[in-house]
Specification:
Blueprint: H1 6-9, H2 11-27, E1 31-35, H3 41-47, E2 56-61, H4 65-70, H5 76-79, H6 89-103, E3 107-113, E4 128-135, E5 138-145, H7 150-172
Parallel strand pairs: 1-2, 1-3
Antiparallel strand pairs: 3-4, 4-5
Length: 173
């Protein structure tokens, strides 16, 4: 059942990843990721499914602000604005758009947030996670407030990122 450690706690996630890859194949679409607080777990789960290389183009782990800016093209206006910053809808959307551009994929998902236990900011408690998706239909983002320890926040973010990709592909059918 794949090599992603999360799968041992969540076998349904493996099925969701496998279904997502089948859906992308059916639509002849490629996928990519831009991850911050999940540190590559979305890509790890997708690529743990055998045969994923025909669909998954790659992923960018943009943990550092400078990587978000220089590799993914997240604007200084977003990153330097205290009311926005790296944990915002704008950042998530620009990360997904940047991943789509840099990786040359059809659809990209992004994850940026505060997994904890530290890092809390005013109005952005631990568990605040923004997901973004970018496709030929445009970009959008979704806010989640996950409960639990760091590993649980990251796990929930991976599950929701896979779900967001699946929903986007459904809209493209």
């Amino acid at each position: 059942m794949g090599e992603c450690a999360i799968f041992s706690d969540d076998p349904a996630l493996y099925d969701a990843c496998s279904d997502l890859l089948d859906q992308a194949r059916e639509l002849a679409l490629t996928l990519g990721t831009a991850e911050s607080c999940t540190g590559g777990l979305v890509s790890a789960c997708l690529t743990a499914v055998s045969g994923s290389s025909d669909v998954v183009r790659g992923g960018v782990v943009s943990y550092a602000i400078e990587v978000k800016r220089s590799v993914l093209g997240v604007s200084r206006e977003v990153l330097d604005d205290p009311s926005l910053g790296a944990v915002s809808a704008e950042c998530a959307e620009q990360m997904a758009s940047g991943a789509r551009r840099v990786l040359g994929c059809d659809v990209a998902v992004s994850v940026t947030g505060i997994a904890g236990p530290g890092g809390e900011e005013p109005g952005k408690p631990v568990g605040t996670v923004w997901l973004g998706v970018c496709s030929p239909r445009g970009s959008r983002s979704v806010l989640f407030n996950f409960a639990g320890a760091r590993s649980e926040v990251r796990h929930q973010a991976v599950r929701e990122a896979v779900g967001l990709l699946r929903a986007e592909l459904m809209e493209m059918m």
